[in-house]
Design goal:
2 domains; eight-stranded mixed beta sheet; single chain; Neutral/alkaline non-lysosomal ceramidase; 38% helix; alpha+beta; elongated
């Protein structure tokens, strides 16, 4: 009788031990399950969907929309890259695309619209008509593949594939390198602008060490084209394919365009060789892969996003437009008559450059005329030289007029729009952080100095800048470049007044400091 209480106590203790053990087993099972995340665990999933327009004469390589969905705790974000010229405004992606994609994803996945960043590579490939639906599909597929990941950050270096297209002229003005018009004469060029060779890299590895995705940020217009002139994602798309082919199976490489507004592919105006983006893409890919090999991924994540609307001043170029029109009239009136045309000019210029002393005949004929006191050949040479000089001067003036005409059309278009819209324009700016990777975005073609300035001022080593994100507001050149309005595309194809730069760079610095 007296032993029963002891038995009861032993049973109670045994039940407690069993319960504690089962609870511990459940906790271990949950913590070890790849499909269930703790509050501090970082999850990510990636996917890509083909968006190539195949209703064209020839397709060289596929275009993609790629999505990287990242989740940490209550915060979910999506980085989306599109092989397209822009997010709205120009090209075949409509102005409604961004809002429609965000609305659909918010409805289906409950991701906040402001947490969805969509960057256009700015390649000039042609996308399919249902690119909006395919973008939604890519994001949803990425969201279905969420797995625990680790994060790594690093930088690469590539300076062989691009060149600054701004030419500093001896007269204090600037010109730019475009296929739309001729370059100024070599003897008028005093210098060129800078490039940014840095490749900013965000790497996400699964817990088994396999690479899930790579985001790489680089500044260059991917507009080199391919020899067969087919539809192409250009150097950035071709580089991404090489990166994916050389990492883990299923890795997604997302190219995020940087401050490439005034950065062209190398040898952009080559007329002696077919322009081939694959060569440049291979170089960019190899430099990126070289850097990726040295990136170690860790559990240090810290996902953070800040999305703000920035109000910027619009330009008013009414005075500059009037000046350009007057300059066009002056150039037209300064054209000189000459007896030459292209047919007679070309053989003459060859002769007179090869044989400056005796261009019109063999030297002995000149000697004979001199002995006889005649100067017919010398006078013919003087007349021909004067005609060639007038012909060449006319060509240079007409080339200048063609540059003016193209840029005047851009200025007039934006002047009309700005006058109708008011004095300011609202743009969306995003500050993004994951681990030690920090990035600021802007919805326009930022020129390279903007990115260099922001990086230099940042207190954090791995700070990167992406233009062409969440909309398109044409070019965003520096205040200094906007002193050159009418002479280059970047400063003519622009909605902003010069003050925009200081406002944006100040806001970028403020947001970066909050990404701690």
């Amino acid at each position: 009788m007296n032993q029963l209480p002891n038995v009861s106590r032993r049973c109670h203790v045994l039940r407690q031990l069993l319960t504690s053990g089962m609870l511990l087993m459940v906790m271990l099972t949950v913590a070890g399950s790849p499909g269930i995340a703790s509050a501090a665990e970082l999850l990510a999933g990636a996917a890509k969907v083909d968006i190539t327009n195949r209703d064209v004469p020839l397709v060289n390589d596929p275009l993609y929309v790629k999505a990287l969905v990242i989740k940490e705790g209550d915060t979910t974000a999506a980085i989306v890259t599109v092989d397209a010229v822009a997010i709205g405004e120009i090209g075949s992606i409509t102005n409604e695309y961004l809002g429609n994609v965000r609305d659909q994803i918010e409805q289906d996945l409950h991701i906040k619209p402001q947490n969805i960043m969509i960057n256009a590579s700015h390649c000039h490939g042609i996308v399919c008509k249902d690119v909006e639906q395919r973008t939604v599909k890519a994001i949803k597929e990425a969201a279905k593949k969420l797995v625990p990941v680790k994060v790594g950050v690093g930088t690469g270096h590539e300076d062989r594939v691009m060149e600054n297209r701004r030419l500093f002229l001896k007269n204090g003005k600037e010109a730019d390198v475009r296929h739309a018009y001729s370059l100024p004469p070599d003897e008028e060029v005093a210098g060129i602008g800078p490039i940014d060779p840095e490749i900013g890299i965000l790497k996400l590895d699964k817990l088994d060490g396999e690479t899930l995705a790579v985001v790489y940020n680089f500044a260059c217009h991917p507009i080199q084209g391919v020899p067969n002139k087919g539809n192409t994602a250009d150097m950035s798309g071709l580089a991404s394919q090489v990166i994916e082919d050389n990492l883990s199976d299923g890795t997604i490489a997302l190219f995020v365009q940087g401050c490439g507004g005034d950065i062209n592919p190398a040898q952009y105006k080559d007329v002696d060789n077919p322009r081939d983006a694959e060569t440049l893409g291979n170089l960019l890919a190899l430099s990126t892969l070289k850097a990726i090999r040295n990136i170690k991924c860790t559990d240090d994540s810290g996902l953070k996003l800040i999305n703000e609307t920035l109000t910027l001043p619009r330009s008013n170029n009414e005075k500059r437009i009037a000046e350009l029109k007057q300059e066009q009239e002056q150039l037209l009136n300064s054209l000189q008559g000459t007896s030459l045309n292209l047919k007679t000019f070309l053989p003459l210029i060859v002769k007179y450059k090869l044989y400056e002393e005796h261009p019109s005949y063999y030297s002995h004929r000149y000697m004979l005329e001199q002995k006889l006191g005649r100067d017919g050949l010398k006078k013919l040479d003087a007349e021909n030289r004067a005609n060639m000089e007038r012909y060449i001067n006319n060509i240079y003036k007409m080339e200048k007029m063609s540059r003016n005409k193209a840029n005047l059309a851009l200025l007039t278009k934006h002047q009309t729009r700005n006058q109708a819209a008011g004095k300011t324009i609202d743009v969306e700016v995003v500050a993004f952080k994951l681990g030690d990777f920090r990035m600021i975005t802007f919805p326009a073609e930022l020129t390279v100095n903007i990115g260099l300035n922001i990086k230099k001022k940042s207190p954090f080593e791995n700070t990167f800048v992406a233009g062409y994100t969440n909309g398109y507001n044409y070019y965003a050149p520096t205040a200094e470049q906007l002193k050159n309005v009418g002479n280059a595309q970047e400063d003519s194809d622009c909605l902003f007044a010069p003050e925009w730069q200081a406002i944006f760079e100040s806001k970028a610095h403020e947001l970066i400091q909050q990404l701690k």
